């Protein structure tokens, strides 16, 4: 199978092999070394000198963890959304009692940093800002550098900045410290080439300050206890050890390739796929300037249903893609090129799509 | 290594092998079949016709999920505790704003069903009752059959009954429907012989009724959405697919052995270990009548420190055990015999311990 959905992504052979290692105690020296190795590597990819933790749960669990550790019920939150996952981040904040103002950008477009700045001036009580780095539902990468400047210009009155980087980090530059992001969340099954089941969270010093006042109820996701246990090479609760084995192996491969080369590879994959889709006469959903390096959304020809194309790609060619979400379910295909993906994988995908479209 | 800690437990070879299978889409037919197979098997081991769900998280995540789906802040909870994990269950309920009365039994002893009944009469507003089936910190199995009778005698005024079966289920009988348990929680890395990262939760019809009124904030652990997605063979968020592969393999082995044979094997392992420890002149922590079939706690000779014995067992014999918890850290060893464990494993452990004690 050529698994081209935006997560879980395919596992390289060395990662598949690493999964089957013997179980160990999560309270022993061997585990401490595993956690330390994984954490050190993650810290390099997040480009932070701050804390990075591994949580046992999905990416959505990581988003919830970020929120409940810095929010109190009633807190004013500005949620910037341009798709399903921006909406989800806002919904979690609402579920925990935050007073959420939502700033929506049209699906297929990126956020506008100046508009976010204006909204922050309109809602001066905003304590927490939610943004999505890469919107998986539309294939849009939000360039966060301009937003970082806008926030920097607000000085100490700037809100705490939470970044959903679930489907970007590890494939795209996100210099957390340089940009001043406060909580950055990712998940193992995306660009990290590991199985699902682990979320990662980078935590700035400022996030800890906000956290000290946060009254949202929390136990499993409590980062204070995660930090206490991390200091002794442990996690508060039994972690997903086998998935950590896999992650160690994939991080070793990623470190060998190096972040700059990984970033270039993803850009090339995206460009190659976009050119190929256009050559098939398809209309792309996101504009060139905001196109995601990890996932591409394309319209199917208007006389076709996306789910039918999806089904034929699987059955006839062993290519697995996602369709659009929500109202775009039958209009879009979403094709991922993140993590363990080569030009040959993209070519195989394009060839399969051509065959389906031609019949 | 002879891994004899009370979870994570050793993985059988077929489970290790299953882990490395190719990644698949969590929104496709193959995943639906995987989830269905695992769920059907789990339902048999929980002996329930009700719902059983798999959550991506640790056992503690499963306990939190159970609580936040049935509680509202201020709800009266009676938490019965005889060790660390009973205490944890109570602490999670407190973290989410419940009004918790705690009924403590001494460590090393089991709960007394009549005393629980008296406490329920003393606190007639109790909405939710928390109990631990197998207390991992002391090696005590609470016989829940008498408590089931006590609760039945209360009729419709009985509280909702939550059972932490993290370290018992899959090795011990827990007929959920027959006993009238409302929420039963377990986790993959215990008797289930799979890696950590999945929690299981059985949900009674009555639990759904209580849940409809529960106002605790929840998103990641929301069982309503888990139920909606389960109906189409999916999970709301990306599940730990590789761990589910492992679980399917271990459940297949368990189904082949059969629950009655598994229960007998665990009793024999526990008896054999207890006899062996007594033959070494060691004093056992829990009495014969309440001794756990999955984990045994034994005092070390009073001139020794448990952590030193533990360290020597690892270094000199490759046997990994746990020590006591809290005030008992240096007094107790805790030795697990759950899941993938044979008489030979127990004998090897006893031989190693004899060697360490004799030097």
| Gap from first CA to last CA of chain A | 21 Å
Strand order of the biggest β-sheet of chain A: 2-10-9-8-5-3-4
Number of helices of chain A: 13
Protein structure class of chain A: alpha/beta
For the record, the CATH class of the largest domain in chain A is Alpha Beta
The CATH homologous superfamily name of the largest domain in chain A equals Type I PLP-dependent aspartate aminotransferase-like (Major domain)
The proportion of residues in beta strands of chain A is 15-25%
Overall average pLDDT of chain A:
98
- Total number of strands of chain A: 14
What is the H/E string of chain A? Answer: EHHEHEHEHEEEHEHEEHHHHEHEEEH
Helix content of chain A: 40-55%
What is the makeup of the main sheet of chain A? 7 strands, mixed
Most extensive chain interface and residues per partner: A-B, 55 and 55 residues
Indicate the CATH architecture of the largest domain in chain A: 3-Layer(aba) Sandwich
The radius of gyration computed from the alpha-carbon positions of chain A, rounded to a whole number of angstroms, is 20 Å
Oligomeric form:
homodimer
CATH topology of the largest domain in chain A: Aspartate Aminotransferase, domain 2
Low-confidence stretches of chain A: none
| Count of all domains of chain A | 2
Shape of chain A: globular
